[in-house]
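ok so for the tutorial part 2 we go from a plain amino acid sequence to predicted structure tokens. step 1 is just haveing the sequence, like this:
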Amino acid sequence: MPTKDAEFRAGLMEILPRLRRFSRSLTRHEADADDLLQTALERALKRSDQFQAGTRLDSWMYRMIKNIWIDEIRARTRRAQTFAPEEAGEGMGAEDPTFDRQIRAMSIERAMDTLPEDQRIAVSLVLVEGLSYKEAAKVMDVPMGTLTSRLARGRQALSDQLADQEGARA
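step 2 — the prediction. this is what the tokens look like for a chain of 170 residues:
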């Protein structure tokens, strides 16, 4: 019979790809996302006794990741450090049958990058990770109306950005 700790670890392994995707949406940088996720996983394992059985592990982890990222941004601001963004054209021109999908994904990623952080988090939690509005509002620690407003503004901004990008390519 699996122990509570083994079940907790198995639950983390099950949601790991979603946690990584959420970390990437917050940081917009692969190495920073990996560091953020590692920190969150270490913290979760150390504090596994604080997780309440019967609640959603993914929501608990999303909230932890978000809070760790906010702390990191504050620390970076204090240290006045900046990281150069990845080159947008890395891997461009490769002969690949999925090239159009990659271009579309890069367009969406660039559009997401232009969103204010509060809108980007709302869009990531609801549209990418599939959380309900109630769950996302809880993760973000905001009222439901605030989440709805941020999500609506984020969706509209993404739609506008992607329409502009499509128009520029035509």
